[in-house]
Design a protein that fits this description.
Strand content: over 45%
Radius of gyration: 24 Å
Oligomer: single chain
Largest sheet: 18 strands, antiparallel, barrel
Order of helices and strands: HHEEEEEEEEEEEEEEEEHEEEEEEE
Structural class: mainly beta
Helix content: under 10%
CATH class of the largest domain: Mainly Beta
């Protein structure tokens, strides 16, 4: 990246104003260095609700859709200014009657599943600096990828936000800041203001002014790294995510990663607003909330991962303290449970819960290039069970992922993935549920095709 100074920028702008040839050159730079990518995702979700236990509500999902994502990334005029635009669309292929959830498609007030289409990303960007010290500023519609807020990519198209962001790099130390005012759910049209996860006593969702995020991360040459992030939704919630990790490479293809995480959240309950934890926690916690006191929860997560050539094995332990760890920063905040025991169906983040997890994955590159398989088993116990008023809540989840990236030149960019998740708990179907909803089996099939158009 070329070094930019204020004087150089001013000179470039003046020269562009005085010379039509210079303007043409700068416009040429803006578009000649641009890129247009197309991603097609065909996805099928199935959960027939056959495995619910007595007293549990039946959850039925059978949806099939086609996602279209067109991403345009411009070059930089004067090596400073540019813009990005993305179009997202989800087409209904099958979303019959009886679907109880809007996993893939948009559900109207009448209960029908329908298509959606939107400009998911549209922002002006500006960059400054050189390879050692630089900054990237965006304003408009954008995506997020940090421990506090992330654009979920598990549906037809990702979620996105309105606001601004700053990313700065100081000799390898990265600082980022985001100010967000609206969000667009991953399966809906348009953008809406943030609202709270639960409704108040009058049955209304609380409108949130904004969400602010500040983060700092770095990775040393020795393999040690860290990331600290803090987020705040005014009058609603504060949350921090802290991670330290170390990767030791014994030899090429053989390494050990040790990872420790500490997550903390506090509800700003001055408006006596239900954050969602009252339904999971102890009666005395709900009483504290009613008195206007802040609610805190902490989550500790320890992980170890061994990579030996094509084999990867990992173990994890998580414990939640002081209350249900409600990490959502707003009503439709998905994909931000960065602790390793946050799974497809359950986050395993209930009050007093202790969680053990083991996983194994293998890359069959020597036998069938492009094919990978992974198995994860997660078990949680001692979660506070509101119906029994005891720490006897139990849950487990088994996740199988099979994926294949096509290797044939004619099929470059085509990938297939099948995810099968089984979840069970001892939830007795009480109004005050103890654990993550109902027992169920989930099938998710993805067929992705990505191509660079130019």
């Amino acid at each position: 990246m070329k070094k930019i100074t204020t004087g150089a920028l001013s000179a470039a702008i003046m020269a562009g104003c005085l010379s039509s040839g210079a303007q043409a050159d700068q416009l040429s730079t803006l578009f000649d260095e641009s890129q247009l990518d197309l991603k097609l995702r065909n996805a099928y979700f199935n959960n027939d609700g056959k495995h619910v236990q007595k007293g549990q509500t039946k959850r039925r999902v059978r949806q099939w859709g086609q996602g279209i994502q067109l991403d345009y990334t411009s070059g930089y005029m004067w090596d400073v200014l540019g813009f990005d635009v993305s179009w997202y669309s989800g087409l209904k292929l099958d979303g019959g009657k009886g679907n109880t959830n809007t996993d893939l498609l948009y559900k109207t007030d009448s209960g029908k599943m329908q298509d959606y289409s939107k400009i998911g990303v549209a922002n002006i960007k500006a960059r400054f600096g050189d390879d050692d010290v630089n900054m990237l500023i965006r304003g408009g519609r954008l995506t997020q990828d940090n421990p506090i807020m992330a654009s979920s990519g598990s549906r037809l198209t990702p979620s996105s936000f309105e606001g601004g962001s700053v990313e700065a790099d100081f000799y390898g130390y990265d600082v980022y800041y985001s100010y967000l005012t609206k969000q667009s759910e991953r399966n809906k049209n348009g953008f809406e203001k943030f609202v709270s996860k639960k409704k108040d006593a009058s049955g209304k969702e609380m409108e949130l002014c904004d969400v602010k995020i500040l983060g700092f991360k770095h990775e040393f040459d020795m393999g040690l790294g860290f990331e600290f992030a803090y987020g705040e939704a005014k009058d609603y919630k504060k949350r921090s995510s802290n991670e330290v990790y170390y990767v030791h490479e014994f030899e090429p293809g053989v390494s050990l990663k040790l990872d420790g995480q500490y997550h903390w959240m506090e509800g700003n309950t001055k408006k006596k607003y239900d954050l969602g934890y009252a339904s999971f926690g102890k009666p005395e916690d709900q009483a504290k909330y009613a008195k206007g006191k802040n609610y805190e929860s902490r989550l500790y997560n320890l992980n170890a991962e061994l990579v030996y050539q094509q084999l990867t094995a990992a173990v994890s332990y998580t414990q939640t303290k002081d209350g249900f760890f409600d990490y959502y920063m707003h009503n439709q905040d998905h994909g931000t449970g960065t602790f390793w025991t946050s799974r497809t169906i359950s986050d395993f983040n209930h009050e007093n819960e202790k969680v053990w997890q083991a996983s194994v994955a293998y890359d069959f590159m020597q036998y069938l290039p492009g094919f990978k398989a992974a198995l994860t088993y997660t078990h949680g116990e001692d979660a506070y069970n509101r119906p029994t008023k005891k720490d006897d809540g139990k849950e487990w989840e088994r996740d199988v992922v099979l994926s294949y990236d096509f290797q044939q030149p004619a099929l470059k960019g085509l990938a297939f993935s099948y995810e099968y998740s089984v979840y069970r708990n001892n939830n007795n179907g009480s109004t005050q549920k103890a654990l993550e909803g109902n027992s169920r089996d989930d099938h998710r099939v993805y067929l992705d095709y990505t191509v660079a158009l130019f």
